[in-house]
Amino acid sequence: MNHFSSVRDVPDLKQLLETALAVKQHPHAWHQLGKHKTLGLVFFNSSLRTRMSSQRAAYNLGMNTIVLNVSSDSWQLEFADGAVMRHDKAEHIRDAAPVMGQYCDLIGIRAFAGLQDREADYREEVLEAFKQYAGVPIISLESATLHPLQSFADLITIEMHKRSSRPRVVLSWAPHPRALPQAVANSFAEWMLRAEVELVITHPEGYELDPRFTQGAEVEYDQRKAFEGADFVYAKNWSSYTHYGQILTQSEGWMIDAEKMALTRQAFFMHCLPVRRNVVVADAVIDSPQSLATEQAANRVVSMQTVLKSMLEQGVASN
Ligand code: CP
């Protein structure tokens, strides 16, 4: 892995998952591996889990971390080639990224979709610019279209709780008051489609995801029907991909509640957090013993540590 921004960067998913289970069991076994290495964590957007779990993962490997919150701490960055920089943006990515690459051996980037221009978002302009100019490996901390460290943590969580060799995993759209990107849903779909699971995606009409990430998944527009026989229910809101960035309907009837969970095969409930309680999911579900939300968040340390370990062992950060 020269960079980590999608499951497509993973040469052998089964092996990566085995490594993750070893990391989970012995988190301090490689505490010298990252000695004298520095992980940069660059945030264009807010974060709780990604920020803290990435620092903890680096610490477990003996690495240093430098955190930069671009929107509040740094110069505003220009990404357009040939820009005449007379306005609010003081520094070009062509200058900023190579400088960050001098201070850091690996850099994590969080840059959400703007939800205004689908083509620009799906070109991953921010992430790709860092890959092009930083000169060091780049790890996605959630990009415009994907959230691979979350999906990897989700897969680890499913692996630890599955009761059959090929569990039925249902990704369910759920309501939300704000327009959210498709990144978590796209990413979950592309990881599940490479794992040993049966993936069903359920959402109201108009919320179809980009088929580049979902091809091979069953789509069921009837949420109750989708839940029948489910082993895992993964709730997430996303805005429309076809009517890009729009909320087409509030669809309160899509909230995950105990009555719907009763249709499943005593399914585990999953959510990446943060979650709007009693909008996305009822308290009775997220507070139930079947909820894996906190464990998913705990496994964010494992997913990041596993990715860092693999990259360090490959020597990709050996400047
Ligand atoms: N799930 C997740 O990425 O959480 P944060 O946005 O808090 O980092």
Summarize the structure.
The protein has 319 residues and is α/β, with parallel strands linked by helices.
What does this structure look like?
- By secondary structure, the chain is α/β, with parallel strands linked by helices.
- It has two domains: 7-146 and 300-313, Rossmann fold (3-Layer(aba) Sandwich), CATH 3.40.50; 150-297, Rossmann fold, CATH 3.40.50.
- Helices cover 37% and strands 14% of the residues.
- The chain is built from 13 helices and eleven strands.
- The chain has helices at 13-25, 49-60, 70-73, 93-103, 118-122, 125-133, 148-161, 183-192, 211-214, 223-227, 258-261, 283-286, 293-314; strands at residues 38-43, 64-69, 77-78, 91-92, 106-110, 138-140, 168-173, 198-202, 218-219, 232-236, 268-270.
- The strands form three sheets. A five-stranded parallel beta sheet has the order 9-8-7-10-11.
- Helix 8 links the parallel strand 7 (168-173) and strand 8.
- The model has no long low-confidence stretch (mean pLDDT 97).
- The structure holds phosphoric acid mono(formamide)ester.
